[in-house]
Amino acid sequence: MNKDLWSKIGDGGTAEIYLDESGRVVKLFREGFSEAAAASEYQKSEWAYAAGLPTAKPLGLTNLEGRQVLLLERLEGESLLQRLHRSPETAEEAAHKFAAYQVRLNERKAADLDDDQRIRLVQRIGWADRLSGSERRQVLEALELLPDGQQFCHGDFHPGNIMENGEDWQVIDWIDANCGHPLYDAARTLLLLGFGTDEGGARGRMEEAAAVFRSAYLQTYSEQSGFARAEIERWMLPAAAARLVEPIAESEKDKLVEFVRSRLL
């Protein structure tokens, strides 16, 4: 592999994204990203593709100069986030389709997906050192009151992970895919839509369109899933606490801590 022949097409919290000389997408994980974590994402990508989900075909897993590399087929088109930046007036229409799309994904059973949602949440909440021990215990107690599930959850479902090609939508980035209750997936999406920052979140420079998108998303997800908004919002406390261990901007972590503490009052 010759990195000099690649062209960079994106950046994420865990990886840089390139096109190689053969037209493949190269996800070059950042230094320190473990071989086990890269293998987990590749296995989830294979699971999604084999399950017939609309996604890129995984092409291989290797390494370059000590960094993990995931190879994928290239998907044509642009991300939904790029479209919203280009045409923010389409936010409401896009949010309705986006929510309905997620509801359909969440209806799938995923008992054979090797990532248990509750185990994931308990671990991450326990690692959230921006919270006190007492606060972490309160969040875990709240989590215990929430139901289990066996549904497929993408875990990072936001407009940047939807690729559009005409009317066709495809989903990318399976690193956080898990098996559990679908309302965790919806709650995490609400957090991603509501707590993003200029450094990489969903709001960026288009706060008005983001507010419209978030409102329409919540309404449509509730209507099409049959769950009340209040049921979705109950999952936001553990979802917010768990997100504190991710490589995100400190400004976003400050907002998440404030949100968690407001829910614990």
Please characterize this protein's 3D structure.
It is globular and about 55 Å long. The chain has helices at 35-50, 80-86, 91-106, 117-127, 133-144, 182-194, 207-225, 229-234, 236-243, 250-264, and strands at residues 7-11, 15-19, 25-29, 58-64, 67-72, 78-79, 151-153, 162-165, 168-171, 178-180. By secondary structure, the protein is of the alpha+beta class. The protein has a five-stranded antiparallel sheet, covered by helices on one side. A three-stranded antiparallel sheet has the order 6-8-9. The N and C termini lie far apart (54 Å).
Arithmetic mean pLDDT: 93
Largest sheet strand order: 1-2-3-5-4
Give the helix tally: 10
Radius of gyration: 18 Å
Main sheet properties: 5 strands, antiparallel
| Strand element count | 10
Percent helix: 40-55%
Unreliable stretches (pLDDT < 50, length at least 5) are 196-204
Categorize the overall geometry: globular
Order of helices and strands: EEEHEEEHHHHEEEEHHHHH
Strand content: 15-25%
Distance between the termini: 54 Å
Summing up helix and strand content along with how strands pair, one would put the structural category as alpha+beta
Q: In summary, what is this structure?
A:
This protein has helices at residues 35-50, 80-86, 91-106, 117-127, 133-144, 182-194, 207-225, 229-234, 236-243, 250-264; strands at residues 7-11, 15-19, 25-29, 58-64, 67-72, 78-79, 151-153, 162-165, 168-171, 178-180. By secondary structure, the chain is an alpha+beta fold.
